[in-house]
Specification:
With 186 residues, the chain is an alpha/beta fold. It has a single domain, classed as TIM Barrel, CATH 3.20.20.
């Protein structure tokens, strides 16, 4: 089994960025939502040079124009959308640059989840669903549940609060343990 892509989100400090790059993360997530304790300063994000690691901006209520302006200013490769953005919004950003979030716990059954689509969910709910597009599993992932998360065969893992000491402050021990578990499963 090959390792899924790994995105570590909620980046606010250069030392965490550097650790993630050293560990082999595929994507780094920067949250652009003032109400979030992990809200990233655009000047900081613009200063981050990651080599082959992709930079993803997480957006909630911004207009398409604001998203595009932030992407340009900060050198972002993709926009992860967490609001009511519609198909037209996604086309404005560029369909190859959009990561769309969905919330499985808002669906009453696996069948409803399959039609639609943070919070940790019952991984078993995903076992019988064939998802035909690349997808990331997110929501409370860390060393304590990463093996279970892999049983859903996600294309990627989106890790944030499960590897933190405090919001926006990553825990080096937890991050290293996640990557050790992933390396052992390859």
């Amino acid at each position: 089994m090959s390792r899924p892509l790994v995105k570590v989100c909620g980046m606010t400090r250069m030392q965490d960025v550097e650790l993630c790059v050293d560990l082999g993360v595929d994507l780094l997530g920067f949250i652009f939502h003032p109400k979030s304790p992990r809200n990233a300063d655009p000047d900081f994000v613009a200063s981050v040079k990651t080599g082959k690691v992709s930079k993803v901006g997480v957006f909630v209520n911004q207009t398409a124009e604001e998203v595009l302006e932030t992407m340009e200013r900060c050198g972002l490769h993709a926009a992860q959308l967490h609001g009511g953005q519609d198909v037209d919004f996604c086309w404005k950003i560029g369909p190859d640059r959009v990561i769309r979030a969905f919330w499985p716990d808002t669906y009453p059954s696996p069948q409803a989840l399959l039609r639609g689509t943070g919070n940790s969910i019952d991984i078993a709910m995903l076992q019988d669903i064939e998802i035909l597009t690349p997808w990331f599993l997110a929501g409370g992932l860390g060393p304590h549940n990463i093996k279970e998360a892999l049983t859903a065969n996600p294309s990627g893992l989106d890790i944030n609060s499960g590897v933190e000491k405090a919001p926006g402050i990553k825990d080096e021990t937890k991050l290293r343990e996640v990557f050790r578990i992933l390396a052992a499963m390859e």
